[in-house]
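Progress note, project year one: complex with glutamine.
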Amino acid sequence: MNKFKITIGYLYGECMNIYGDTGNIIALQKRAAWRGIKVTIQNITLNDKLEPGKVDLFFFGGGQDQAQNLVAQDLKSTGKGKVIKKEIERGVPLLSICGGYQLLGEYYQPHEGPKLPGVGLFPVYTVAGDKRMIGNIVVRLSALSCPDKIGTADDFIVGFENHSGKTYLKEGAKPLGKVIKGFGNNGEDKTEGCIYKNAVGCYIHGSLLPKNPQLADWLLEKALEVKYGETVNLKPLDDTLELLAHQAAMDKFS
Ligand code: GLN
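Model obtained:
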């Protein structure tokens, strides 16, 4: 066991966890443990208070409109949204998928009912479209948004998407990448996701991290670097199976 340990904050896991998103928590937990890093999962849900400095990496999965309504109100009423935003500003990494990503933008306007207030972390906004965007997705990480080790500009990430929300990037927002196959943010501008500091939002379910190990390790390294104040290069793992799954998706869908 090495000196490193991290706490992963699982945001609203009981209601924002669809299409295999919990698999991202398992992937982060395993990839850390295989390097001797002690991992604590802190479930953070409705009515909980969130103290700054207690979580080293946030995960926020996808969810249906009903759950999003509850969660949007909770982020605001408990102040958790403000704390998450401050934590990201100091470099804490975060991965958010679909419904979670939408609620970290400026707002989400569902098909029915009022506009849901977002946390305002990502400079994006989302409006429900009139058709669901469902299918496999392949994204080329853009050079623009490709800080150090998330991969190189010619890295691809793969998965599947299922959303009606169309997310639009505001001026200055950095997309996570360019859609090679699939819909991405809105099915119109070929962008997918958004990256701000070490926070990533995207539409890729599946779950995302098991077959995109470079992104999992990037999140873990960022968490450790912010917590311990030093550069961290995790020892490489035998990712044969992960990369076979990745390549199979690439071959089939790109
Ligand atoms: N309810 C949102 C939408 O349909 C998010 C769905 C999801 O998280 N997969 O766009």
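Helices lie at 22-33, 65-77, 80-89, 99-103, 213-228, 240-253.
The mean pLDDT is 94.
No further modelling is planned for this target in the current period.
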